[in-house]
Amino acid sequence: MRLTALVVATGFFAISGNELYQNCTAASGSLQAIFCVGYVTAVSDSLISQRLMCAPEGAQVGQAMDVIVDYLRAHPEQRQRSGYSLAELALVGAFPCK
After folding, report:
1. Which CATH architecture best describes the domain 2-94?
2. What residue ranges do the domains of the chain occupy?
3. This prediction's pTM
C-alpha cells in the first residue's frame, strides 16, 4: 500500500497508455521495466483495495504485466488514454471479483 501512495503522490498515474506500453515492453532490468513493475503493482494494489479486481492466490506481478501489455497490444487505438484507466480495464477484465 505504501507503493501505491508513493505512485499517486508523485503523479505517475498521469502517464498515457503509450508511455505505459513503452515502459512495460522495455528490456528487462532497464529503468523503464522497473518503473512498469512498480506502476503495475500500485495499480493492482489500488484495484484490489477497492475490490474491483480479485487476483487468484499466488498471482505474480508478471502476470498482471502480461495482461496489461496484451491489452495495450490488442487496442493500440486506445493508448492515448490514461495508463491507469487502460490498466484497470485490462486487470478487472482478466481478474474479476465474483
Report:
1. Orthogonal Bundle (1.10)
2. 2-94
3. 0.86
